[in-house]
Prior knowledge:
Elements: E1 19-22, E2 29-32, E3 42-44, E4 51-53, H1 60-93, E5 121-124, E6 131-134, H2 149-164, H3 175-203, H4 219-229, H5 234-237, H6 240-258, H7 265-271, H8 286-305
Antiparallel strand pairs: 1-2, 2-6, 3-4, 5-6
Helix pairs in contact: 2-3, 2-8, 3-6, 3-8, 6-8
The structure holds zinc ion (ZN) (2 copies).
Amino acid sequence: MSDITSVHVTLPTDSKGMLGRECPQCKKYFKVKPGTGLDISDCTCPYCEHKEASENFTTDDQIEYAKSIAVKQTLGPILKDFERSLKNLERSTNKSFISFKVETSSFNFPIKYYTEKDLETEVICDSCNLVFAVYGIFACCPDCSRLTSMSIFLKSLEASKKRLSVISKLQPNETELQEVILMDALVAGVSSFDSLGKRLAREFPSFIPEKPRNLFQNLDALQEHLSKTLSIKLSDLITEDEYKRLYYLFQVRHISSHNFGEIDSDFVKKVNCDPKLIGSKPTIVKEDLIEFLDVIEKLGIALRSKL
Ligand SMILES: [Zn+2]
Ligand SMILES: [Zn+2]
């Protein structure tokens, strides 16, 4: 009969005291600071809001590390005994005709150390004080699964702005990469605004409906809805000019997701541009995106204040 031994392994944290986590559902990575937040055994994924036992959020690196510690602690002493008996056997046989040589270097169990990855945004939950770190857009706090819609919105935009700043470090010939980063910031900006809409719909169901689901991705539909329920126009919350440029970039985002980024007749009609542009791709520059993210922020804050 062998004993079942349980080994307690404490996972190391990074230089800021943060512990890496991986969602079992969407597989995305985030970090939490043990000792902050709530004393609970569940964890909620900040990206997809999937909730289950904290232990199931262990990363592959952490599992490998824990396994290597467990093997060292449980098998180490057993093999030390075994090694001793083999050495005794070696001593008792070395004067006989049959000699027995023992090589024990294979009894070494290395610990599989790892380092946690760097993440761009550090957040302190304004409900439970958990300190956590995420990459890009996120939806909630891993501990209390709350967080005000505004703080998520502002943090998400901050992350997009940070990513945009990478462009200044690129070489002039890295134009393709530059386009990818610009489009990423555009998509992320629209997604942040859309996530804000979904949150506000939950908080203020009498003003913002749950359906259509992507109301905040479609400025025409949003405009129509707000003028009915709150008698406000989006262009009143920012300037007419800002709204026009925001509207243009929302349409650019739309064709990037639905028409490989090429201008179609619907785009021409909506932004009132030259039909000769059909089939070409609109040019956007970094400055457009910096302004875009600022205007989205301004619009989100102004809209929230009206609810
Ligand atoms: Zn997830
Ligand atoms: Zn929280």
